[in-house]
Design brief:
This protein has about 400 residues and is of the alpha/beta class. About 40% of the residues lie in helices and about 15% in strands. It has 14 helices and 13 strands. It binds ligand F0G. Ligand F0G binds near residues 203 and 237.
Length: about 400
């Protein structure tokens, strides 16, 4: 299938960037059904016994690049809960209506599975025998699992000190070859160029974006196609905001929704090159990333142009939050009985800050995206629980965690 450049729209091979700096992206296919007819079809698929439709990605098959059924590697990904706040999150952020789309409730515990089912299936269909990625952990865990299911070899390049023990163990459990690279995610990504005859399954791969965009459809379906005012999500390499934004724009273009939600991207303040570029309306200047939220410790995000285009299209914004604020938000999500890894909690921390600044109205209806499972980073959970104990011992009511 031919892709186009996300920026200048020139036709492009799916596996390389454009001379203008844009990334390959697929054009929307149409379901050839009325919006009402398509919504009904989707409803029936939810209870269908067709194995493809047990996946919350392949259920939207008309909106995906064509891949032969026999090549599809799927694990019922994408069927994740939309949890309404039980009150603590709403109180913490001072917002009227808050729900969490928990993409950590996927087969390998992160949102990456939605994209990986499509990327690995496409690699398999094109005859590739191996896949590879650079990763702070979740992409690699997802790649390793789907590659194993599809009978492909996988190679994970990870930053030596920038990945949780749990993620490293998980990647190895699924049988990937792990190469620990000295330096950061950005250094690991640069090393990918040394690999030959492998399909790169980072989010520069347009098949990943096609799968991940389905999170937007799933969120809308779970809400009866009622559009929230804001969608708030963490940003690292900025593939996910590009994907979810693409899904929302497509849902709008197809008439499945009548308006767009606004999107807010939240970065950790020690890894916020996109926020800087957004605020100053300049091109992205890479930085050396430093944050305890290791999943989003990325200083040179590859999808920043796409993310900027999405935010402009939906009147969105980007802000950063400190590691301390991320930890507090993680504590609140824990006390909601939900839990998540630190990078995910940046979305709630960011929402609180957006309300404080008056950018999000306190009366708004908000969906925050939780990207990774609480079990992905045990050390972070211990740190946050210890912090809570210290506050309890001091009798402090200043912090809601
Ligand atoms: N949240 C989690 C839990 C992540 O693992 C990532 C990215 C993000 C948010 C940010 O998403 O990069 O699409 O903006 N993790 C990548 C990885 C980098 O290698 O697992 P993004």
């Amino acid at each position: 299938m031919v892709a186009i450049c996300s920026e200048c729209e020139a036709p492009l091979a799916a596996d390389r960037p454009c001379a203008c700096g844009g990334l390959p992206e697929f054009r929307l296919r149409s379901p050839r059904m009325s919006p009402h007819g398509y919504k009904n079809t989707l409803k029936h698929r939810r209870v269908s016994s067709d194995p493809r439709f047990r996946s919350g990605v392949w259920r939207y098959i008309e909106l995906l690049p064509p891949i032969q059924d026999s090549e599809i590697v799927s694990m019922a990904e994408g069927n994740v809960p939309l949890y309404e706040s039980a009150g603590r999150g709403e109180d913490f952020a001072e917002v009227r209506k808050l729900a969490y789309l928990h993409l950590g409730m996927n087969p390998t515990g992160s949102f990456k599975d939605l994209g990986m089912t499509v990327a690995v299936s496409a690699a398999k269909a094109s005859g590739m025998r191996s896949v590879a990625c650079a990763s702070t952990g979740n992409t690699a865990a997802s790649m390793a699992a789907y590659a194993a299911r599809g009978g492909l070899r996988s190679y994970a390049l990870v930053p030596r000190n920038g990945i949780s023990r749990e993620k490293l163990a998980q990647i190895r459990d699924y049988g990937a070859e792990v190469v620990e690279v000295q330096g950061s995610f950005d250094d690991a990504f640069a090393r990918l160029a040394e690999l030959d005859a492998v399909a790169i399954v980072n989010s520069v791969n347009p098949y990943r974006i096609e799968g991940q965009k389905c999170a937007a459809f799933a969120m809308l379906e779970a809400r009866g196609w009622c559009v929230p005012d804001w969608v708030v999500l963490p940003g690292g390499n900025l593939g996910n905001v590009s994907a979810i934004g693409k899904g929302l724009l497509e849902a709008h273009a197809l008439g499945l929704i009548g308006r767009l939600p606004r999107i807010a991207v939240i970065q950790a303040s020690g890894a916020a090159p996109f926020v800087h570029a957004w605020e100053h309306q300049v091109d992205l200047v890479p930085c050396v990333a430093q944050t305890m939220a290791s999943a989003i410790a990325i200083g040179n995000p590859k999808s920043w142009r796409r993310a900027r285009r999405i935010l402009k299209a939906c009147n969105g914004t980007a802000i950063s939050v400190s590691d301390a604020e991320i930890d507090r938000a993680k504590g609140v999500i824990g006390l909601e009985g939900i839990g998540c890894e630190p990078a995910s909690a940046s979305s709630l921390a960011g929402l609180r800050e957006l309300v404080r600044r008056g950018i999000v109205d306190g009366k708004a209806d908000v969906v925050t995206i939780l990207t990774g499972h609480v079990l992905k980073d045990g050390a972070a959970s211990v740190r946050v629980a210890d912090l809570r104990d210290v506050q309890k011992a001091r009798g402090s009511h200043a912090c809601a965690i």
